[in-house]
Specification:
Helix content: under 10%
Distance between the termini: 35 Å
Order of helices and strands: EEEEEEE
Strand content: 35-45%
Strand order of the largest sheet: 6-5-4-3-7
Shape: extended
Structural class: mainly beta
Number of helices: 0
Largest sheet: 5 strands, antiparallel
Oligomer: single chain
Amino acid sequence: MRVVKVDLDGTERLDPEPIEPWQPERDELAHPLVLVIWRDAYFDFELADIEDARPDYLVHTAGFLLSEGPRFLSLAQEILPDDDGYRAVTHIPLALIERITRLGPGPDEV
């Protein structure tokens, strides 16, 4: 497998410069990156019989933790620049969550 960096003008660089590891700034970590494992309300219209249903349909969702309210936890897949908000926000009922794992340092851990 060969990885090729695509420049804005469309030319390929065969010998790309090494990329330095990302070092987060304190203000970039306003929302910690987490993995949430939760039981989705899975339903399949193709099921022939109720016995064919999956009792344990665990979903793994990774994202930026926006909020953890009394009923829902909210994760964003993308944080937009210039305080433009978020994209791809998932709201997960707390009652369905099995486990939450922090994937990176939080604001106080930099």
